[in-house]
Amino acid sequence: MTAPHRPEVICLGETMAQLTPADGAGLEHSREIRLAVAGAESTVAQYLADLGHRTAWVSRVGDDPFGRRITATVAARGVRVDGVAVDPLAPTGVYFKDPGPDGTTRVHYYRRGSAASRMTSSDADRIDLDGVRLLHLTGITPALSAGCADLVHTLAERAPDHGTLLSFDLNYRPALWSSREEAADALLTLARRADIVLVGRDEGEALWGTATAEELHARLAPRGTLVVKDGAVGATEFTDGTTEFVAAPAVDVVEAVGAGDAFAAGYLGALLAGDAPRDRLALGHRLAGRTLRSIEDYVPAEGV
Q1: Beta bridge partners of 246
Q2: Nearest to residue 142, comparing CAs of 37, 284, 41, 265?
Q3: Residue-wise over 251-269: b if at least 16 C-beta within 10 A, else e?
Q4: What pLDDT, in 10s, does the model give residues 161-181?
Q5: At 3, phi and psi to the nearest 5?
Q6: How many angstroms separate the Cα of 56 from the Cα of each of 11, 72, 203, 269?
Q7: What is the rounded radius of gyration, in angstroms, for the C-alpha atoms of the chain?
């Protein structure tokens, strides 16, 4: 990544082709499917670009129409994609959203053996962290393969040497792990290496049995800042011995998938801008609200 304008933020992780019933019906009955682009880390990158930050997304995609569409779409939204490698031997991942009559949405992934899952620690060598203020990773990537886990740990080791803050969003996906215990141990290790940790209160309860934000903070014992997201209730930041809570504004929810990544982008964008904790949490809520009002994971400002 040697373009003349270095990014201040790098987000690394898999992005997939997303297929969603366009009429709101479930997959069994829908007659029309909408094709979009979705991935936790590229969603964060796109929202950060909206906020005016120089952002890059790093990953691998297949040499196929989905991979080309994903890369072009993310680039068109102001994110650098020269760190995206094309793998001619593996496909781009795909997933389907399946809205239910009760307002919930199930997600069906077809990502095993995908191009992104074939990333290894060697991919770290094509990532230049000089001048990068923030590296954003999630708990999805280390769950994809042993090679991806090695890559995440390698980058976590290198970030401090470059003065780069490490942001880590747990994004616990039970289906990607062999067991809850494996996920709990792996994600705890990574969280304790990060400067900024974002985690859902429900994730903490599922992984470690912590019922409150305070219990989760005590369990993780982070070395930096912890942000606990509690859905429609609000979010709490723990940093430097202080605690800040901001309630979530009321939103008419269309679909919740992707809202956590939008929140992360808003919070991180405000952090990079030097905003106070209350303002960081508030911007996280505002961006999450964009996604909650849509079936898309990423919603540009003009789309609200």
Answers
A1: 235
A2: 41
A3: beeebbbbbbbbbbbbbbb
A4: 999 999 999 999 998 999 999
A5: -65, 155
A6: 6, 13, 27, 14
A7: 18
How much of the chain exceeds pLDDT 90, in percent? 77
Strand pairing category for 84-87 and 94-99: unpaired
* Angle 105-152-140 from CA coordinates, rounded to 5°: 10
Q: How far is CA 40 from the centre of its chain?
A: 3
- Profile the chain (304 residues) by mean pLDDT over runs of 10 residues: 72 95 84 91 96 97 98 96 97 90 82 96 95 98 98 97 98 94 97 97 97 96 96 94 93 75 96 97 92 72 52
Q: Angle at the Cα of 11 (from 299 to 152), degrees rounded to 5? A: 140
Q: What contacts 219, CB < 8 A, 6 or more positions away?
A: 204, 208, 210
Q: Of 195, 261, 279, 297, which residue is the catalytic one? A: 261
Distance CA 209, CA 216 (A): 9
Name the strands in the sheet holding 94-99, side by side, starting at the edge strand that comes first in the sequence.
33-38, 16-21, 94-99, 105-110
50 is catalytic: no
